[in-house]
Design a protein that fits this description.
- It comes from Marinobacter adhaerens.
- Helix 3 crosses helix 4 and helix 5 packs antiparallel against helix 6.
- The radius of gyration is 21 Å and the shape is globular.
- The longest helix is centred in the middle third of the chain and has 18 residues.
- The chain folds into two domains: about 220 residues, no CATH class; about 100 residues, Homeodomain-like (Arc Repressor Mutant, subunit A, Orthogonal Bundle), CATH 1.10.10.
- About 50% of the residues lie in helices and about 10% in strands.
- The chain has about 350 residues and is an alpha+beta fold.
């Protein structure tokens, strides 16, 4: 079962370049197991497996890892070549410096530059030339891929102190809370990520055979399925589990399992841009969406599985999460949506 869901916004944003260049994006969606009808629902979400497949299909079909949004094409295999070059680096700092050297070989350049200060380091986006990025997907992807690749190579999340963007807060800005897990700043001088200098000396722990396995689904998986195992959000998701038919653990128990006080845990969740209630709500939402894709389950069965004793309460909650009833959502997934009601 896929852990997370991805907002409709990112599905449409990822295809913006393909649409402009005249590709058949409906065919791409169907091949990824996503009904184009589902995207007519404003708050629709797809599971991370579907989103990962869609990105792989689009990259392959377009032979462009910038998905038609960059100042030039990045032919398929560019990211894999960069990974092959950085896997032998001793530390995270060496990884980012070598990745910068590699991406500077292409003109116009699309890269991230490592700038170190007395205590903090910044990864600053450097894009030359004109880009077609109406929904900011290219710029977001560069930040996410470089950050998560580094975290994967050193086997621990590089904790971010700040994420900055040189553009106004977009309409989907709320989604950024769950992408970056740190304070956000828009209309900044740069688009950049800031982290503590101590991560620069983190050793690369991955071996060359691991990179081959990793590249079978990356960078798509880096965008669709972040490793949250070392965030408090991810650990709480793991402790809650997926069986909502039994009473959920309370916050004090969760805090004791994580060897911290409830006050500290609340503060840490606030730093990760979330709360215990939101984690529970989003887990329920994602689980409900997963079960709606299983036609053998009735909507009443699903209500029970996600912890609602009254189907009517489930209907209300689901409509709040997605803007439509569970029945309308299921029709959209099946490609038989007649209204958005």
């Amino acid at each position: 079962m896929s852990d997370l869901t991805v907002s409709r916004h990112f599905v449409q944003a990822a295809l913006a370049g393909a649409i402009r260049l005249g590709f058949d994006t409906d065919a791409m969606l169907r091949e990824a197991g996503i009904s184009p009808d589902l995207l007519r629902i404003e708050k629709a979400r797809v599971n991370s497996d579907q989103f990962s497949r869609l990105l792989q299909i689009a990259w392959s079909r377009m032979n462009d890892e910038f998905l038609g949004m960059g100042p030039r094409r990045a032919r398929a295999g560019t990211f894999a070549t960069m990974c092959a070059l950085v896997i032998d680096c001793p530390t995270l700092e060496a990884v980012y410096r070598r990745a910068w050297q590699f991406s500077r070989l292409f003109e116009p350049m699309v890269s991230m530059e490592l700038i170190t200060g007395p205590q903090n380091t910044q990864l600053i986006t450097r894009i030359e030339g004109d880009i077609y990025d109406p929904h900011y997907f290219l710029r977001e992807s560069i930040l996410v891929i470089w950050h998560r690749l580094g975290s994967w190579l050193v086997g621990q999340p590089v904790e971010l102190k700040k994420a900055e963007f040189d553009y106004p807060r977009p309409a989907h800005g709320d989604e950024y809370r769950h992408i970056f897990h740190c304070p956000l700043a828009f209309e900044s001088e740069h688009t950049a990520l800031t982290f503590d200098n101590r991560f620069l000396s983190a050793p690369v722990i991955r071996a060359r055979p691991e990179i081959h396995q990793f590249l079978k689904t990356s960078p798509a998986d880096l965008l669709s399925r972040p490793d949250e195992s070392n965030t408090f959000t991810g650990q709480i998701r793991g402790l809650i589990g997926r069986d909502f038919s039994r009473p959920l653990p309370d916050f004090d128990w969760i805090a004791s399992e994580l060897h911290t006080s409830p006050q500290t845990l609340r503060r840490r969740l606030k730093q990760e841009n979330t709360s215990f209630q939101e984690i529970k709500d989003l887990l329920r939402r994602d689980t409900a969406i997963y079960y709606l894709g299983r036609p053998e389950l009735s909507i009443n069965d699903i209500a029970e599985k996600v912890g609602f004793t009254e189907p009517s309460t489930f209907h209300r909650a689901f409509k709040k999460w997605t803007g439509v009833t569970p029945g309308a959502y299921r029709e959209g997934e099946r490609g038989s949506l007649s209204t958005q009601g």
